[in-house]
């Protein structure tokens, strides 16, 4: 797809992601196979040439704002954790990241937020949190929730129920 077309895509819609590939890769990791995880180049709106080698481990962490939207992907997860963060914090983080790390203008970030990010969040992300086993409020500042999650992962690694 030409660059101009890629620039017009809605990258906040679930269809923008290669979820099928993610499912295949997670299944491979669960079978004990090493995978080549694609990386993404935001400057060209496409996959980068480099991939990251990921070896199987007892715990596989899958993160992303749309990972609970797809049932087949959800079904591969033993524990589903939704980290709920205030909308003001989300937009400020996005502005700082996109302006500083991705070289975008403030106007372009605000325009994208209003036209795709916010509507897709309301349509897909917010409803998908009902599929979580645990909803962590206050992002990473909820020490009680983090302690519980760490203990659950520790027991999984040690083979305890």
Condensed summary:
With 161 residues, the protein is α+β, with helices and mostly antiparallel strands. The protein has helices at residues 3-8, 19-30, 71-74, 87-100, 106-128, 143-157; strands at 35-41, 46-54, 81-83, 134-136. The strands form two sheets. Strands 1-2 form a two-stranded antiparallel sheet. A two-stranded parallel ribbon has the order 3-4.
Please give the structural blueprint.
Layout: H1 3-8, H2 19-30, E1 35-41, E2 46-54, H3 71-74, E3 81-83, H4 87-100, H5 106-128, E4 134-136, H6 143-157
Parallel strand pairs: 3-4
Antiparallel strand pairs: 1-2
Helix pairs in contact: 4-5
Could you describe the 3D structure shown?
The chain is an alpha+beta fold and 161 residues long. It is built from 6 helices and 4 strands. The strands form 2 sheets. It has a two-stranded antiparallel ribbon with strand order 1-2. The protein has a two-stranded parallel sheet with strand order 3-4. Helix 4 packs across helix 5 (106-128). It starts with a helix and ends with a helix. The mean pLDDT is 93.
Record keyword descriptors for this entry.
161 residues, alpha+beta, two-stranded parallel sheet
Q: Report the helical percentage.
A: 40-55%
The spatial strand order of the largest sheet comes to 1-2
N→C terminal distance = 48 Å
Structural class, by secondary structure, is alpha+beta
Biggest sheet details: 2 strands, antiparallel
Mean pLDDT over the residues: 93
Shape: globular
> Compute the gyration radius: what is it?
17 Å
- How many helices? The count is 6
In total, the number of strands is 4
- Can you write the helix and strand succession as a string? HHEEHEHHEH
Low-confidence stretches: none
Instruction: Work out the strand percent.
Output: 5-15%
């Amino acid at each position: 797809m030409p660059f101009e077309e890629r620039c017009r895509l809605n990258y906040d819609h679930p269809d923008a992601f290669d979820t099928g590939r993610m499912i295949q890769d997670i299944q491979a990791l669960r079978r004990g196979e090493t995978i080549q995880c694609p990386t993404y180049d935001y400057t060209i709106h496409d996959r980068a040439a480099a991939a990251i080698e990921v070896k199987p481990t007892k715990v596989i962490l899958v993160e992303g704002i749309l990972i609970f939207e797809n049932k087949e992907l959800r079904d591969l997860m033993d524990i589903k954790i939704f980290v709920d963060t205030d909308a003001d914090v989300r937009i400020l983080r996005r502005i700082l990241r996109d302006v500083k790390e991705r070289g975008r203008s403030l106007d372009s970030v605000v325009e994208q937020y209003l036209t795709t990010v916010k509507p897709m969040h309301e349509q897909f992300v917010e409803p998908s949190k009902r599929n979580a086993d645990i909803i962590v409020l206050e992002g990473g500042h909820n020490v009680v929730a983090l302690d519980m999650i760490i203990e659950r992962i520790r027991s999984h690694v040690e083979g305890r129920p």
